[in-house]
Design a protein that fits this description.
Helix content is 50%, strand content 7%.
Length: 332
């Protein structure tokens, strides 16, 4: 994957931050650093320059508060809205720097009318991509840590598998090698499934008449699928709220099953599915493997009902007000 060197570079910065906590046995709020990691990658990937959150803790904390305010503002105008406006201003600055140094020939994605290439439009698009590309990755990493640190036998099984391609704690795995690990892949798929991060309907409209079985659907009719309901459907996934990665593995061979793939929809399906899926999966695979291999972690004051499970709908699921976030309180 083209972004692999960038991801490894940011993982080294993430590890350096966690090393400082490990040296003092302080409690680390993993959510903050995972958000900085994911945001720095996507800003570098989209705008050719990183926001530098992994190198500035104050800036990272401010960005975390901004993203939280954005989620809450979906429900109502709140006093933290100023942080959201500050975030838009940050994107305006970043896109201005990009446009000042952009190549003469832009990629095909920019082959549109000039109005759509304006700085204001690009700043809005950048903010959408960066905010969407950060929080979903972060919540998956948070939740994976919570479920694994809550379940030592499964964590030990996973570590034995990871060590086959990362014999040393300092080993840098390739994405391709990690994706070949069946148990690790099952862990990630089950985390994405049970987390069911997207709680909104994400409706689309087709400009033409659509035919579905015996029904004709009029042009312009809003159509949506609730991803959350598919991933937690008990008729597809028995005991859907339980973290059970083995459901993705064949009992006899230990290899990944395929019959559940049509219902694995955390990124949507079809031509309008998440365009950043491959980058997001790469970030999750590589960061989770490295953090687990390099550090011995344990949960600190983290309770599933309070810190992991959703308490309200903000397009993405939101947890109870005032908590750190899933799996974020850890000893490093």
């Amino acid at each position: 994957m083209a972004a692999e060197p960038l991801i490894l570079e940011q993982i080294d910065l993430l590890s350096a931050q966690l090393d400082e906590y490990a040296a003092t046995r302080e409690v680390v709020q993993c959510h903050t650093f995972f958000l900085a990691y994911a945001t720095d990658i996507v800003t570098k990937h989209v705008l050719s320059s990183s926001m530098g959150l992994l190198q500035d803790r104050t800036k990272a904390l401010n960005w975390q508060r901004s993203i939280k305010s954005l989620a809450l503002s979906v429900r109502f105008l709140n006093p933290s809205m100023g942080l959201v406006l500050d975030s838009h201003e940050t994107m305006f600055v970043e896109t201005r720097k990009y446009l000042a140094n952009r190549p003469e020939k832009l990629p095909d994605i920019y082959n549109c009318d000039e109005q759509k290439k304006s700085q204001d439009r690009l700043a809005q698009e950048a903010f959408t991509i960066i905010s969407a590309g950060g929080d979903t990755v972060v919540s998956t990493l948070d939740n994976a840590l919570f479920y694994l640190l809550s379940d030592p036998p499964r964590l030990e099984t996973l570590m034995q598998e990871i060590k086959t391609i990362m014999p040393q704690a300092t080993s840098k795995p390739s994405l391709a090698a990690l994706q070949e690990l069946p148990y690790f892949t099952a862990i990630i798929k089950e985390t994405l499934r049970v987390s069911a991060l997207i709680t909104g309907r994400l409706p689309l409209q087709c400009p033409d008449i659509m035919q579905y079985k015996e029904w004709s659907i009029s042009a312009g009719t809003p159509i949506s699928t609730t991803i959350h309901d598919v991933l937690l459907d008990p008729t597809i996934f028995p005991h859907p709220n339980s973290f059970f990665p083995e459901r993705w593995l064949d009992e006899e061979t230990g290899q990944l099953v395929t019959h559940l793939n049509p219902f694995f929809v955390p990124f949507g399906k079809g031509t309008r599915m998440c365009q950043g899926m491959d980058l997001a999966m790469a970030e999750i695979y590589m960061a989770l493997a490295v953090v687990l291999r390099r550090f011995e972690l344990e949960l600190f004051d983290t309770i599933r009902e309070r810190d992991v499970d959703f308490a309200k709908h903000c397009l993405l699921g939101c947890r109870k007000r005032g908590v750190w976030g899933s799996g974020s309180g850890c000893w490093a």
